[in-house]
Amino acid sequence: MRITGGKARGITLKAPKGDRTRPATDRMREAVFSSLGPSVTGSHVLDLFAGTGSYGLEALSRGAASVTFVEHDRSALSCLQANGAAVLRSCERERSSMHLVEHDVYRCSKQLQRYELIFVDPPYASIAANLEQLFAAVIDSCTVEGARVCLEVPGDFALHINGWEVLRRIGKASTDKPTVALLQRTAAHSQS
Question: Which of 38, 29, 35, 24 is nearest to 4 (CA)?
Answer without folding.
Answer: 29
